[in-house]
Amino acid sequence: MGSGLMRKKKKKKKTNNKKKRPKVSRYPDWSKLSPDVLGKIFETLSSPIDSHRAKTVCSNWYSVWKTCLHKPLYSLQIIHQGDSPTEEDQTRKILGFTQRSYCMATFGSWLLMVEPGLKFCIFNSLTCEKIVLPSMESPIRGGKVTFKHNHMYDDGYFLRNGSRRDEVRYEFDSVEWKNSVAALWIDEVTGDYVVAWTYIQHYLFSYKKGDSSWCNLNHNRKSLVLFDMACDKYKLYLYTADHNIRFFDFSGKYPIEKKSENRYWKHPFDYVEEEWEYVWKRKLAVRPSGEVLIILSLKLVLSEETLLFYIFGMNLESFKWERVDSIGDEMLCFGHGVTVPLAFKDLGGGTRSDTIFFVDKDVWPDHPDHDHRVSNCGVFDIVTGVVEWPKKLYRSMNGTQWFVWGVVY
């Protein structure tokens, strides 16, 4: 046969047109679910407590939670152990606290609580996490300030500062405690926090996570009268009675007042109200940008009385304080010290941007609105100037502190 050689035919390799499946780990990263799937999960959570727990799973879940429109906005009534609930809405007792426990400040779902014996703690009303702060009887940094037990009263103390001695009674209805101002800030991602409070317009105490003891910030022992204070991102802002803004930086080992970095220093808030304007309260708030706002609660008396809120910000070119007509996609909780950005203009249930949330004691008590309102919490529309009193959407503590569920602090 020709060459006598048999040529072997080469076998063609079979080609598999099927695409190979990507290898799937036996242990998938369930925390990296798609935003659509996570959004569906969040929408099925009817309880604010479950919603709060879901957002703390990881940073990815928290990022999606912030943009979720249908978060639960149901009201929660927070009562002390031993009280009798009078509302049928979701009621949550603060276990471990008594009727003599007092809420001094709030930040989101976190409460700054003080108990008999001047025992301070930070408490999460949703998760029941409790952070116990050092005893006020422990050594205090920054001046010769000491707390010594007053044996005449079970929960009373003597507060000494050099030759000065003040009596501290555990009676929160007293003028000394009513004039006390407090602030709380906490980073839910890192767990860092800063606490500050004043007493009898003379003492200013602070504590930051990791500190060995409380710190006295009023070193010069002079009178320290404050309208308000606010804490945000390691900075404590003070709104003083002479209408100046001071701030302390807590980012280092010790809190430091940095006047050189304070663009508001020596530019006091100099607004003079008209004869038909009657100011009731003055508060401070810090925007996410770091801009400081001053908010006035007042009534306008012309042919009829009108409840109003004025917002002022400083023009950084002229260094003059000017009226602010809008805060954009943010909302403001009167007395909470910060504005809160919202992912959507309207979250429903009365929670929307460009508004101020307040309680009845934040406005003039003799106004006719108090006779017709359906709750003790109101909403002021900054653009329209209209006050609404939504029914049972928000709850208050001690008649002054309150919470709006479903928003991001």
The chain-level structural class is: mainly beta
* Tertiary shape: globular
How many domain regions?
2
Distance between the termini: 92 Å
Biggest beta-sheet profile = 5 strands, mixed
| Biggest sheet strand line-up | 23-22-26-27-28
Please tell me how large the radius of gyration is.
28 Å
Number of strands: 30
Q: Tell me, rounded to a whole number, the average pLDDT.
A: 77
Helix content: under 10%
- Tally of separate helices: 5
- Fraction in beta strands: 35-45%
Region (Disordered): 1-28
Domain KIB1-4 beta-propeller: 97-381
InterPro entries: F-box-like_dom_sf, F-box_BR-signaling, KIB1-4_b-propeller
Organism: Capsella rubella
Q: Mind explaining what this structure looks like?
A:
The chain has 409 residues and is mostly beta strands. It has two domains: 100-267, no CATH class; 269-409, no CATH class. The protein is built from five helices and 30 strands. The strands form nine sheets. The protein has a five-stranded mixed beta sheet, with no helix packed on it. Strands 3-4-5-6 form a four-stranded antiparallel beta sheet, with no helix packed on it. It is globular. The termini are far apart.
